[in-house]
Structure formats: structure tokens, C-alpha cells
Amino acid sequence: MNIGIVGLGLIGGSLGLALRSHGHTVLGVSRQSHTCQRAIARGAVDDAGLSLNLMQSAEVVFLCTPLAAMQATVVELVPHLTADTVLTDVGSVKGWVVKTIAPLWSNFVGGHPMAGTAESGIEAALPDLFSNAPYVLTPTETTPAGAVQLVEALVRPLQTRIYRCRPDDHDRAVAWISHLPVMTSASLIAACIGEADPAVLELACGLASSGFRDTSRVGGGNPELGLMMAQYNQVALIRSLHAYRDTLNQMIAHIEQSDWRSLEALLKQTQQARPEFLQ
Ligand code: NAP
Q1: If I label 196, which of 12, 37, 53, 245 is the partner at 20 to 30 A Cα–Cα?
Q2: How many CA atoms lie within 13 A of 101 on its CB side?
Q3: 194 and 68 co-located in one domain
Q4: CA 143 to ligand 1 center in whole angstroms
Q5: Residues 123 and 213 in one domain
Q6: Domain of residue 247, CATH code
Q7: Which residues contact 104 (CB under 8 A, 6 or more apart)?
Q8: Pairing of β 134-137 and β 111-113
């Protein structure tokens, strides 16, 4: 099948590598010609260029730009598509994307491959990035069934685990397991560096080990990603943050009141629940 990819970075490049290894012809469009050349050299695309005109022979187009570029890209892309071209995206937030893109191209299905690394750009692309990773599709009542089936048929052979859900349910779920952890982990680091005694802070830095490494990892990452989560998934993230604050207040109350029995019950509950999230 002829497949188009717009945005040849970590996700777009990885999709190209994976889809080509399954026999598809992949055409890429990116913003910089150097990126296009590297994508060709790395075998992520059969051909690539700066003009969206390259997408006219694509049967399916994967939109792999940053979220902020998606709307303008689709407006520019639409005149180059044939009527039955299926358009899908890989954005990490689905409510905003589906609301914005579906009115521009009806043969559109929202998607989110839930895989990544700390790196970005074409050099970071990996052929097996999606292997064993969830791939969420978010059709609505108006999404053509054929578009969903086609995208699913393309990404399932990449060893992905397909989930289908509503865009808003996707955003609520990722708020819990991805966006809230970034904010709480960042808050942890921010609270620590607020220690008033420089000697204690220096001691804490020296003593920090695996526990701090685990709990601070996602909060110490690329600020652009955290900002994107807050901007594009604001409602769900706020809901999760409020629930988190309520739980934290409950925990503070147990400790202030030396209510060890309640604290123990809460910690036993979380110990039991954690494996459910990490199957
Ligand atoms: P990335 O590595 O920075 O790649 C994005 C690429 O898009 C850049 O290399 C850039 O290419 C290109 N680009 C930027 N603006 C463009 C435009 N207007 N037109 C065409 N190309 C443009 O980012 P990424 O991690 O692959 O993320 C891409 C999408 O995947 C985002 O929507 C993100 O939400 C989603 N996603 C990311 C992850 C993750 O963990 N990183 C996971 C799942 C989904 P040039 O080099 O040519 O400028």
C-alpha cells in the first residue's frame, strides 16, 4: 500500500521504518530538507520532500507533526488528497485533535501509538518502537468504519495492542497514567528545591538514590512535553490534579492526626492496586 507520513521525527520515522519492513511504500513530508534526506538514508521512507504534493498518491496519510502544527498542516494538505484518502494522526491528545481535524477531512480517524523514548527527531527513530505497545484508535459516531478498519489493519501487524475508545475517554485515561505523573513528579522536584536550608538541600542531593530517580524521572524531562499535556488536555488534567490533591490532603490528615491505621489501609490499597497498571 502507498502510505504517506507528514512529520519525519521520532514517531513518523519509526512508523516509516516499521511500515516499510512490512512491504509498504512510504512517502514522507517534513519541514526541513535535511530531515527528508536523513529519513531516506535511514530507510524510513522510499522518498521524501518538503511539498505536501507528495501525498497525492498516498492511500493513507499519518499526521506525525507536533500537535501545534496539525491544524495548519491539514488545511494545507487537504487540496492534495484524493476523496477516499484515509487520514490519521499520532497525537498524544485526542479530544482536541479529533474536534479540530475531523471537520477538515471526514475520512479521518484519531490515533495514538503509546510508545516513545526520551529522544526526538529522525535520528531517534526505531523500527521496533511500537512492538508490544498499545495503539489507541478513537473513532466517533461520524468516523467512517472503513477508515478505522484500514488504519487498524496497517498498525496491528507492527505487534501493537489495539484499543478503541472515545477521544475524551482516551484523554481522561492518559491524564491519570501519563500527564498527572509528569505534574506530580515535577511538583516533587519543585518542593525539594524549595528546602530553605542550603546545607540540608545539599545533603539531600547527595543522598538521593534509586527511589528519587524513579519518582522524579518524568518530572525532570522535556518541559515542552509537560506544557503540551497541560495546554491540550487541560480539562482532564485539572480533574486528575484535583483528585490527587484530595488524596494528598487525606494523607496529610492521617499523618497529622497520627491515624496510622487509616494510613496503613491507604498504603495497602495502593500496594495492591499498582500491579493492575503494570501488567
Ligand atoms: P519529533 O521527534 O520532534 O518529530 C516531529 C517532526 O515533525 C519533526 O522532526 C519536524 O521535522 C516535523 N515537523 C514539525 N513541524 C512540521 C510541519 N509544520 N510540517 C511538517 N513537519 C513538521 O516529535 P515526535 O515525538 O515524533 O512527536 C510527533 C507527534 O507524535 C506529536 O503529535 C506527539 O504528540 C506524538 N507522540 C509522541 C510520542 C513521544 O513519546 N514522543 C508518543 C506518542 C505520540 P523537521 O525536522 O523537518 O523540522
Answers
A1: 245
A2: 35
A3: no
A4: 24
A5: no
A6: 1.10.3660.10
A7: 71, 74, 75, 78
A8: antiparallel
Q: pTM of the full predicted structure? A: 0.95
Report the residue among 31, 36, 97, 155 best suited for mutation to probe ligand 1: largest number of ligand atoms under 8 A from its CB. Answer: 31
Q: Is the CB of 134 inside a 6 Å radius of any atom of ligand 1? A: no
Same domain, 147 and 18: yes
- My answer on whether 63 and 196 are in the same domain is no
* Secondary structure letter of residue 92 according to DSSP: S
Distance, in Å, from the CA atom of 178 to the CA atom of 148, rounded to the nearest integer, reads 25
Any atom of ligand 1 within 6 Å of the Cβ of 88:
no
pLDDT for the residue numbered 12: 98
Model confidence over 152-181: pLDDT tens digits?
A: 999 999 999 999 999 999 999 999 999 999
3-state secondary structure of 65: coil
Nearest 5°: the CA angle 182, 183, 185 is: 65
pLDDT digits (tens, 9 = 90+) for 240-264: 999 999 999 999 999 999 999 999 9
Do both 148 and 196 map to the same domain? Answer: no
